[in-house]
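PROTEIN ENTRY
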Amino acid sequence: MITFDDIRTDPLIRAFIQRGDDVMSAIKYTEHGFAHAGMAAERASRLLAQLGYDARTLELARIAGFMHDIGNSVNRHDHAQSSAVLAYSILSQKGMEPDELCEIISAIGHHDEGTGGPVSPISAALILADKSDVRRSRVRSSQTIDNDIHDRVNYAVISSELAVDAAARLIVLSLEIDMEISAVMDYFEIFLSRMLLCRKAAEYLGLKFELHINNTKLL
């Protein structure tokens, strides 16, 4: 079986992630490199672990999370689909079992709010892991926060936590935002569609999704 360590250390995959982040930097997007890939991998896996999924499903979630943005190396536009195509090529050459390969590429291809939605437990976990990665360290330069709303909102986030209460069937994204840097309305202006997708993903997993900002429930 192909493992997450096989994927995490693969030179071609790492090259795609690095090049994708270089592309994002060139077009003035937030960090989409190894930090984001690693966080998406671990959050997706941890979420499913808290819901009682088996070890192999957790491993596939890690793989999908780590590879989900490799299509940024091609173009940001339709990057979920190009990421899925690249993942298919790489994983099929590595000999991944067809059923597992389909799980991975389907999850990757459905992670973007513009074209996707939850179609499996792994895809739902990936959506929640990806869209909850809001943090100051994703901003490449503090000098951009006055003119770029995406950078301003990310820079304003002091802490971010995605927590599951399996017994209550609840998942909560809790953010602490520095209101002197960004208003809460700025967050909703750019992230509302992502939060609505998170709610759909949570519902697919049989959970209720809540967004808390500065200890106040907003969604």
User: Anything to note?
Assistant: The longest strand covers residues 157-165. Residues 4-217 form a domain with the Hypothetical protein af1432 fold (CATH 1.10.3210.10). Residues 184-204 form the longest helix (21 residues).
